[in-house]
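The pair is listed for reference:
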Amino acid sequence: MAELRFIGKDPDSPQGGSPTLWIDQEDGSLVVQGWRIDDETMSQVLATGSLPSHEIVVRIPSRMFPFLKGVVGVDPAGAV
């Protein structure tokens, strides 16, 4: 079983709920807990290609970008 390292939780989320980020210590992948997307957003996602049955799409707020930048060097503007 992979060991996850807690990265951060949305500081503005009520009662300490989601979104939350972890990094897999074994392979370096991100584990994300986020908000379910609405049907309109899913339609836009599916317009770029199919979504395999073993995958899901979640949304995290832009205020979580500093957590990502600190872990993987992601620039909030989208540059890596």
